[in-house]
Structures
1.
Amino acid sequence: MTTKRFLAFGLAACMVGGTALGYVFARRDYMNKQMLLSQARLYDSLRLNMSGITTAEYGSTFDVHTLVAEHTGDLKIDGQIDASAIGSYPVKLILSGKESKFGLTNSKTFTASVNVVDTKPAEITLAASKVDIKAGSSYDLFSNITSVIDPIDGSLTASTENGKGTYTVAVDGDISKAGTYTATVT
């Protein structure tokens, strides 16, 4: 009878132990699923609405935070806009959040691009609005320009090639031949 009791006790102990072990594994799987669901909910809760701003005026002061209309979570902006140089500037917008039940963190990264453009024209002062020259003679187009002042760069100097701080003059034809021509300052 002792052997039967020993076997019955052993069998009962195995059943209790197996049940307890099953509970431990089931509980672990359940908690892992809950953590994954919680992390997915956190990720889905991170939202960013852009303001629609995609350009900055050359020479202006630009705050990268103006790119964002509203957001959830903590916002970190990685990138700078150099409004003193024309071009395109990429910016990373990183949202992060922390979930309280499990202490999990998650983040989402968005990208934006800002184009720095110069839309403010320079003020051009001419010696005369119309110049008459004799056909066949040479004429220095720059001689009729008294000043070119850019609102950001200030006074510009004459040049045969466009560049920062300079201006050029081009004419729409051969001024050594008789005719009416238009000169363009850029």
2.
Amino acid sequence: MLDIEMQMEDEKDIDERATSYIGKLISEQLQVGHKYTELKKSIVIFITNYNFLKRNSYHSVGRLKFEKTLKEEYVELGYEEEDEIASEYIEYHYIELPKYKNKNPKDFTKLDQWMCIFTQNEGGIMLAKKENKEIERAINTLDFISEDPKERERHNSIVMAEYNRLTSQHNFYKAGLQDGIEKRKRRWNKRKFY
């Protein structure tokens, strides 16, 4: 499960946003009758037009980790190495564009190629298009959509139709679930206890 968020201005609430987005991704997966083992990894990606983390990296990955074992809580159980990751199912990615602009790329990674698009680095985009066919297709699609107002409107209609379909599907599910709960309550109330 993936949520990608672009932030132009620092609203000073990114920690709260990230936490609520990851919670939503997880809760949407676990419907009544589903098993916990069906849970998929939830990833939130924030691409920001400002710096906010005190880190020397433009791409920071966060996971839930255990704190170091305190001396007074230590129990000798023979583990040479303790687990560090508390959950493999939650992951945060923060990409700070101003930091990327200051990067002097020695190796041109796939992430660097995509960052050239976000930072509008024309030289990097030309190089990325040569090395990565996915980027070439994405740029061609963006160019096509941005040049033709009718195509842009058609694209927006497709996106909105899919959003509306998913919303309707979710609403129908909730209505059906509520209907089932009401029927069960009525049956339960009709029972006579002696």
3.
Amino acid sequence: MDSGKESLIDILDLELFRRICGKAPAAPKPTFSVLCLGLANSGKSTILTLLSGENADGIRPTVGFSIKALMFADCFVDVKELGGSDNVRMYWNKYFCGAQAVIFVIDSAGSKESMETANAELHKALADPELDGLPLLVLGNHQDKEGARSKEQITKELELGLQSTARKWIIHTCSMKNKEEIMAAFQDFNKLLLEMKEKEEREDKTEEQDGEFSKI
């Protein structure tokens, strides 16, 4: 079949689809590459396993890194989770390239020392040029434990107010026993990612238009 006939068939197929469904085919969902960081035992692996719909029983701490593909109503999120043990954190920056956003999980009921370590590791990671300005979700996990910190306490102890205005960040508290809380956090995070993408597309379009005008 020649290319002209193939093009005509494609057009007819699309027109038939529109008549049957009453609308054009939906645009593909955007996909985001996200980095998930946090100290050991903060609950990163369990949270991602719950979101992926898998059985979270018997989850073991991540050694090195693992990748989870999460599907939401409005987008796909490919999460690269890095292990949080002392001997792994020193290599975190080797995996930063290509990330479009960052998730940082903490044990909100952890000791003062663990919060200080989390603070240091978070700010060290965010200072890396590869993560400069990327959106951030902080998850205060283990809210079901005694002594769990509030969002306000976590914000203060992690010094989140020191983030530059160029970085959008949100904080949620959650428990691995309550999937709805985790979903709510990711819904807000996904909204932030989609807004970021729309802004970038508008800026790219403006640059293209400016480039066209400069040629006139």
4.
Amino acid sequence: MWYVNEVNTVESQAYFSHAACWLYPLLLFLRFVAFF
């Protein structure tokens, strides 16, 4: 249960939202390169 509480904290949400800003474009870029 401590893991769920940790994920629900504001710091964790801010960290995941910040990571998504560069992680999603990176995954799209890797998927684009995979086709070529």
